[in-house]
């Protein structure tokens, strides 16, 4: 089977982008502060509007607090063994969650990962743990089928 | 089997970082120019010092020409089905290759990918195609075994 557009780069629709973000697990966050550009992987959940993650205090949290506009990149390469790939690049504002909003992040992660997700057991997140979301805008996706 | 440090984050040695970069295929480049932070995946080859890639003219090339200091991120999640992961974050200067140096990039990609790699067939790269390398410094790697 040789489709006419085999190997050509195709733009993903918003529905395809959402489906891809719902099925993937790792996003790379790109942030920039103090002259440094930093890319770091995070395990995330997606609810159709926001990426949610829980992390610990550190370089990426400090940078995103200083410069909240971040890039979110998700890709998948060669899942079919033929070199096909999909990638999504989006932007959004880093928003730290506190109080009841922490539950939004934990619920999204539980929905995505079941028992693997962190739980607060009603006792809060613990010292040094940070929950955040990034409301995505400017989403673009591309795919090549081989 | 429960190793005492099961689940703990471990720093990778330089040898482990090099082995990981040699075995992986996709790097995410983080660049920043004109107030925008951009993360984009590239298929790369690594020779122990530099990441090599071939791409087309576009946003990432324009941004890296303007601001050559970039972040290179490579990760692998859940290759064992238990949630273990490894990631490497490094920095380096974008260096565009021309003339005979294009052969360095193509040779590295052929070494890594065999016949999948682009070939110039002695005719150069063609219009709009860009070969570049990033000589890595400040490499750090982390791993969690589960």
Describe, in plain words, how this protein is organized in 3D.
The structure is a homodimer of 146-residue chains. With 146 residues, chain A is an alpha+beta fold. In chain A, 21% of the residues lie in helices and 45% in strands. The first copy, chain A, contains 3 helices and 8 strands; from the N terminus they run βαββββαββαβ. In chain A, strands 1, 2, 3, 4, 5, 6, 7 and 8 form an 8-stranded antiparallel beta sheet that branches. In chain A, strand 4 (45-46) and strand 5 form a beta hairpin. The longest helix of chain A is centred in the C-terminal third of the chain and has 12 residues, at 102-113. The mean pLDDT of chain A is 89. The A-B interface holds A 25-26, 28-32, 36-41, 43, 67, 69-73, 75, 77-78, 83, 85, 87, 89, 116 and B 25-26, 28-32, 37-41, 43, 67, 69-73, 75, 77-78, 83, 85, 87, 89, 116.
